[in-house]
Amino acid sequence: MIEPQPVTVTVNGARVRRFVEPRVSLADFLRRDLGLTGTHLGCEVGACGACIVNLDGQPVHACLMLAVQADGMRIDTIEGLSDSGELAELQAAFHARNALQCGFCTPGILVVARDFIRDCRASGRRPTRAVIRDALSGNYCRCTGYEAIVDAIESVAGAAPMREDAA
Amino acid sequence: MSAATDSPTRLREKGRYIGHGLPRPGAKRLLAGRGRYTDDVSLPRMLHAAFLRSPYAHARLGAIDVSEAAGMPGVHRVLTGADFSAICTPWVGTLSHFKGMRSAPQLPLPLEKVVWAGQPVVMVVAETRAEAEDALEAVQVEFEELEAVVDLDAARAADAPRIDADAPDNVLFRTRIESGSTAEAFAEAQSVAVDLRFGRHTAVTMEPRTTLADFDPSEERLTVHQSTQTPYQFQDLYARHFGLSEARVRVIAPDVGGSFGMKLHVYHEDMAVVGASLLLRRPVKFTADRMEAFASDIHARDHRVRARLAFAPDGTLTAIEVDDVTGVGPFSAYPRTSAVEGNQVVRLIGAPYRLTDYRADLTVVAQNKVQMSQYRAVGHPIACAVTERLVDLAADRLGLDPFEIRRRNYVTDDMYPHTTPSGYRFEKLSLATCLSRLHDLMDYPRLRAEQAALREKGVHRGIGIATYVEITNPTPAFYGVGGAHISAQDGCVLKLTPAGEVQCAISITEQGQGSEAIVGQIVAEGLGVDRDCIRVLTGDTETTPSGGATWACRGAGIGGETALQASRKLKRRILEIAAAILQAEADALDIREGAVTNADGTPRMTLKELANLAYYRSDLLPPDVSPALTVAHHFAPRGYPFAFTNGIHGSLVEVDAETGFVTLLKHWVVEDCGRVINPLLVDEQIRGGVVQGLGAAFFEECRYGETGQLLNGSMTDYLVPMACEMPDIVITHVETPTGDTELGAKGVGEAGTAAASGAALNAVNDALRPLGASVSQLPMTPERILMALDVI
């Protein structure tokens, strides 16, 4: 076993210093060392997307990297992105549309959706439902069947409805 | 959304809350990352468990050497089967109403044999999960591999190795249902037949199973934080199997990250964690990782169903014969058994139709795979797919449209109450109404015209429909009569607080479907208060009354009625106090928008004023008027054994005949769950259920090798439906409330799963029909479709 290493990261705006065993994943570090339990572990192989956080502003799987690799970097989790209000629009849309049930996948989906909407707005693009569905290709949801999630993101993205039905 | 086609006795109109698609108050917490799932709970002195699992599907256990592991850093204890057999009584997954059923007794860890690959064998308890896993590497276990029983049919062969050496064969349960004479019916009729196979799949809850047990020897008190739907059931089980006082066992189910039936069964790891906490007198936590989830969560389905349907030349369906063989793993699950799945298959087949003769055989077979048991829509998808495939085949033979053959053969509105040949009693269904509603909703003639035009261009579209009948609101007829300690009643304690707000503690539980939200709506409606002033508590055996919890589509129907009647009771109490204060007759008063009013709505006093008086100035009340503002109410359904619901799905698919890939273009659902309490939540239950059904139809399968190894036990290998593969799902409702309750609600959680795969099976076969091919195995993978087309 390798001895714990010093790690300094900026988490949700606060500078944090800890000694961490090199084998500890970023996800375990956030959950266990920092108590940021809003980051969830669903598969630990980067398939389900429940652990996605922002690393220097970009979504990453916290289960796929080691905490020591994040040394010197900025991490924003669901807790920080909520407190700062950056997710408020999406959270309101998800709530109104009931785009979550058990909520386990939700933090990862919100981080991905925020990034997606930021890209859409930067490019002036109004995404179709198919494009939104494609953007969620790294996120599993077992409860909703995805449609409400697509609806909620679509409403925030301001996209023209592409549905065939008016039901 | 349709208007009600029928009305129950008292709750006639759409209320202020009931019937409205209101968002869930509890969802905001989850959206902010403030959910509290079991693995998020940490306790002082908490230790972590890891399990060494059998690499063999079937093996005799030899010597186990834990000496090196026990001395490794952070390790507190290494436990094996013998450590637990001294403190935990075995459990047996049988019920007395399944006559002749047997299953091998189970202990937390095995003593002599392992019976599936992935079975926990040795438990290490250490300071951290990583240290526990490090120590597992140093445990030495001798296994003597035995021949594994894997395939369903092979398990029944006369020379098959026996999984339970004390048993005569690998059959755990057999039953036959017979009504009329199918032999005579088939002798003089045309018939069609199917031989359908349904693969194993599994729940894949996003949150894996987690259990944190905390035994305090000073009070002999056990607290278990557990990701489960059924805390009261586990309170009873832990007390009985570990010889503890039930009143000192507390089970808390905090936020649960999906369950779908999977988290209400007893798992060996749960019992081992509780046992380890008793032995170590400290909190012990185990969280399954995803590989462990695939290898130890219950799997679902696994059937081979041979069936045939007899019909007259005029299109009248007359008789069905069924032979269902289902593989359930090495033993039957506890405490609900692994026979319920098959039992519901053989009792639900043919249920929507007027049949004169019916015969069904069920054989429940053991195999060296992980246990199979109840998962969302238990048995329904199998019964639906078998029935509806047979009906489509008959329609094809007769040259009838699928809508027409169903219209001619459904149980009709003048037949209720109706008893099926298998003995199920229907209070009232809306089969024909749903059928015609679906016809309109799909714009069926346009779809058929479009299909024909596209076929000219070599595009193979398929349209499939599937009717379902669903069991909801079960009475003790389900489990209680068989001796299981599984409650069919629910309890609700309602309290008007001194500030005039409402606390509601109820025994149904929340896994994201919105149980707490609908209970809040019902109490607000029943009491006449604002929903925002109601706090609903669930999932803790110490703070809520004992009840059945949430499973088998009972939460809204039974729990909802409990909440409604409790709110009526509290309202009477409030008005009795108000009458004394206001010197009025209680019957002449009402509660509206949080205030006691005259019958005409004129406010007389706020609930806060009333509660303040009752709690702090009870001296002002007449001596014969109690100041109590807490009421308890329990409700158990006593009418029909089950409240059956019905509905119909439509599926539109496109099959690529060169690649075998199927594109799901659209899915429609017309469903009737009685009174709809919250259409927003009902629709999302249906959509989620449909997608789980489509997963089983096209993607999800637990694949095993010849030696019983699970070949795809990871999220990268096992295909869960994803956003880009799923269609939009159009839903509409017919409402036929049950007259057994004032609320009139039936269940809806399984309606989506019950018929989605059946509709998809019919749609794919409709697409393949002009190509002279058909599929008869789920999931309908590209490989199986290409094999059906003789391409490979």
From TrEMBL, chain A:
SUPFAM superfamilies linked to this entry: 2Fe-2S ferredoxin-like, CO dehydrogenase ISP C-domain like
Keywords recorded for this protein, A-Z: 2Fe-2S, Iron, Iron-sulfur, Metal-binding, Oxidoreductase
One Gene Ontology MF term: metal ion binding
Residue ranges annotated for the 2Fe-2S ferredoxin-type domain, each copy included: 5-81
Membrane-spanning residues: none
This enzyme's EC code(s): 1.2.7.4
Record carries keyword Oxidoreductase: yes
Top-level lineage group: Bacteria
Catalytic class of the enzyme: oxidoreductase
Claim: Oxidoreductase is one of the keywords in the record: yes
The protein, known as: Oxidoreductase, 2Fe-2S subunit putative carbon monoxide dehydrogenase, small subunit CoxS
